[in-house]
Structures are given as structure tokens and as C-alpha cells.
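[Meeting: bench + compute handoff]

Bench side (C.D.) handed over the final construct sequence. Compute side (W.E.) agreed to return the predicted structure before the next meeting so the bench team could plan truncations. Sequence as handed over:
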Amino acid sequence: MLLAGITGFAFLGAYLTLPVTGAEGTVAPVINEAVYQVAAENDHNKEAENKGDPGAKNNTGEKDRKPAASKKPAEGKKATDTASKDPAADQQEELHGIDMKDIVSFDEPVTMYVKSDVNIRKGPGTAYDIVSFADTGDEVTVIGRYGKAGWYYIDLGTQKAFVSNNYLLDNMEAVETYQAQLAAKAQEQAAAAAEAQARAAIADVANGQPAQQSAPQPAQPAAQPAPVQQRAPQPAPAIAGTLFIGDSRCVQMKALVGQSSWICENSKGYEWLESKAIAQADRIIGKGTRVVVCLGVNDTENVEKYAALINQKAAEWAQRGAKTYYVSVNPVTENPYRTEDEVEYFNSRMPGLLSGVTWIDTHSTLINGGFGMVDGLHYNDATNVNIYNMIIAQLK
């Protein structure tokens, strides 16, 4: 809708049938795949503390396990830490592969409440397999905590397991307050978006231009002091032979940039990259291709896997005359699926792991300059085009 004349891009995502012209004037193989329909679906399939975790077997968004069973403690009981070890620890130690001595048991079980849908795992970390799932408002029986790692040790009735303490609150009133705050924030964003759209329409009329219907663009998150540009800027001129590989954030950019070639799908991560996207990229990468990888928000814990795979492929693609770039995972605001701490961990680790790959840090620019979001995970039109322009400016 914005960009007549933008040609020669190949983002890893949905695909267009376009010739990709190399820097030497040679024509690389064309992309001839079905065009993916742009979707606004969330990058997570109800995976709370780690959507896209390799341990999660169900990627359909449906729960494959029942919510955790729970027991209420005697009235007025409070949890206190002790040095005692849970009696069942010995029989779980070998299974979980963790040092059960690090579990500090409570004197009495404590009932806590799930503030947002969350996975329950075999061990205190997202690398452990999922054993159950708890919905918002579910009661969970907490019997201890795992050191200072931020994980509670819980009793499911048939087995012991772990859940992130970021998703449990002391009482149901606190859960209701939290949910009400989320709802209020969504309403504020919607109102700000409507107001911004109305102002834009008034400005168009004042300038003698017909009012345009544009996608809602919420106001800048409160955490960002810099103003957010409400009107989407013009995309930078295309660079021939650019190939983007990415998730739903790339799908959104593709919809705005228009005349480009992409390999990208919603809700994708490392497994999709390894099993599908790489094979598709191998068929079209040639001399002069610029490969731009935009993945990681769905599974930040796979940072080392991403680096190892991209390093390997970058070396192969370099022999064909291609260059490879990796774009930082960009900022998130409050959402049930990914935290900004997890994003910053990914971005702090990845540059040092890459070899023969150019790192493009768009995250820092957005943090310093401001950005606009629609749901805590995806950006408004202006920010998506800004990200695209930042990437194009870094390609060499």
C-alpha cells in the first residue's frame, strides 16, 4: 500500500515470484512459492513463560494437559523457609537432572493463584519438559522454591513439578486486579490509537488531502520517553538481492513494504528455521544475496542453537557470494508470552556467538528513540517501517 517501485527483496517469510538481482548484475534464482496471507495472530500459542520452548510438543495453541491439581492449606497458615529436603526429592533427582538439595521446602503447603496462563515443567527452567498447564485463576499448591532462580516447587498430586514465580500471586483478588489492569491498558491503547487516527485524518483534510483509513497506531509505551511517530514513514529504496527470514514481525513488515520477496511465517522459531526455512533459502541464495535473519522472539532460550546454525549456513552461503546479517530481537512491553529481560538476554548473547555474520542492533535504536505497539509484542505501522529502514541502512 505504501511502496510502488520497491523490488528485489527476499525476506525469509511469505514469498513473491520476483527476480533477485545480485550486486554484480547477475540474476539469482527467483522465489516461486505461495504467498502467505498476512495474519495478526500472536507469535505465541498460549505458551506463557516460554512459547516455542523445544520441550513443548503442542504448537497448535491447544492445551494437551489438564490444569494442575491443588490443595488448600489450613486457614491462617503461612509459608516459612526451612532447610529441610522434600521427602520425594530422592526419587525425582535422577529424573529431573537437578540438585534437589537446592530446593527449600516450606513448613506448610501454600495455595497460590495463576495470574496468567503458564506452563508447568519438570525442572526449574524453560529447558525442561512441560508436564502440565495452568489457566489464569487456577489454584496451585506450592511446597517450596528452587534456590534464588525464581521458580516455585509445586505439588500436582501425582507428581512434583516447577512453575515460574512470575505467574503466581498470593490471592485471587490480586489476580483479578492484575487482569483488570491489563484490560484497562488495552482500552487506553485503543483510545489512543483512535485519537491518533482522527488527528491524522483532520491533518489530511487541512492539507487538502483526502482522509485515509489507516491501521490503528497506539501511543508510545509509557516506559519510552521519546515521542512515537504516528504516521508511517516511506520505506527506504529496495536493495536488489535481499532475502529476509523471519516470524510474524516480518510478516507485518512485508505487508507494509509491498514489492519484496520474503520467507516468513507467523509463530515460528528455531525448529521452523532448521526444518523448513533454511531449505527454502538454499534454493534461492546466490552471488550478491543479502540474507537477513529476524528470529528469536518466540524462543529466546535457543540463542546458542540459532547462532550455531546461522554460523554454519553463513559460511556455506559466503562461498556462493552471499552475505548474512542477524537482526536483534526488538523490544516488548507487558504481554503474557515474552519479557523484556528475556529479549535483552538474547541480544546480549548473540553478537558474541556469531561468526562471519553481521549483527544489526535495531533494539537499542528503538529503546532510545521510542516505538509504538499494538499488543505488547507487535508494532504499529510507523515502527515496522522504521525497523525495515534501519535494516536496509545497515546492508552493505
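W.E. noted at the follow-up: The two ends are 27 Å apart (CA to CA). C.D. will use this when planning the next construct.
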